[in-house]
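Our consortium's second objective concerns turning raw sequence data into structural hypotheses that experimental partners can test. To show how far this objective has progressed, the report includes one record in full. It was chosen at random from the queue rather than selected for favorable results. The single chain below, 294 residues long, was entered without modification.
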Amino acid sequence: MAQRPLPVIIMSSLTQRGSDTAIEALRLGAFDVLAKPHGAYSFGDLGPQLIARIKATAGAKIRPRKAELPGQKPAAPTPPPFPRPLSAAARHPRSLILFGASTGGTEALREVLTHLSTGLPPIAIVQHIPPIFSKNFADRLNQTCSIEVREAADGDRLAPGLALIAPGNFHLMLQWATDHYRVRVVDGPAVWHQRPAVDLLFKSAADCGAAPHTLAGIFTGMGRDGAEGLLKLRQRGAATFAQDEATSVVWGMPRVAWENGAAQQQLPLDLAADFIIRHHENPVTPPRRATLLA
């Protein structure tokens, strides 16, 4: 990846060791990861998924990565030079941040979350990722972020300074419980061939009255999951954005969200954290349609 970047698809067994290897490969620039369903030598029904990802690599933006020595740990993120977020006293109790992502999303989310300062509203995230891998992903983020990051469990309370990530193979939904949000981790049919599905998270937030106090965004990914839910949030008063084409590994989900009118703004990845913090420092009515350039 440092000398000749190529799209790499990882096929890994559903074990702790397989999960560690897969998440590390994604950090080093792998395009996507698929989980072998029944052990090291199984393939199951992965054919259609593998074909879809191979086709998606044709238009993917694979960027060079800095070479690392064996066993070398990634450098800790530089503390963001951003203004302090709103104090808890000034923030509306229903304030909420929602993210959805797929292919390329693990690194996009890492870039954003490691640059968010504490004190922000609760964050709920759907990243298309296989089971077991999602916990490893959340645990790694928790080691490098100022905010707390963990895999969601059914009934968890969403609190300021906390980000909950949907567990692989389960949908993540929200409900309002008198004075706070709680998450539901539920089984159910796949939506847009995905479980967890971004659309279900976004639509549940809209249905429980969160929209007027929500900032929601869609990052890089294949397909169209999240666009309908983001549109529903926007129609009910949420501030919305989508990652721009230039910085997306795959401009699929963000493109659909932009083209159907769900996203009010396009953001390059390196401006996303700054935008999120500034939005909660000084909430303003976003322009009807805008593209922010680095």
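The partners drew two points from this record. The CA atoms of residues 228 and 292 lie 23 Å apart. The chain has two domains: 9-59, 96-291. Both points have been shared with the crystallography group to help prioritize constructs.
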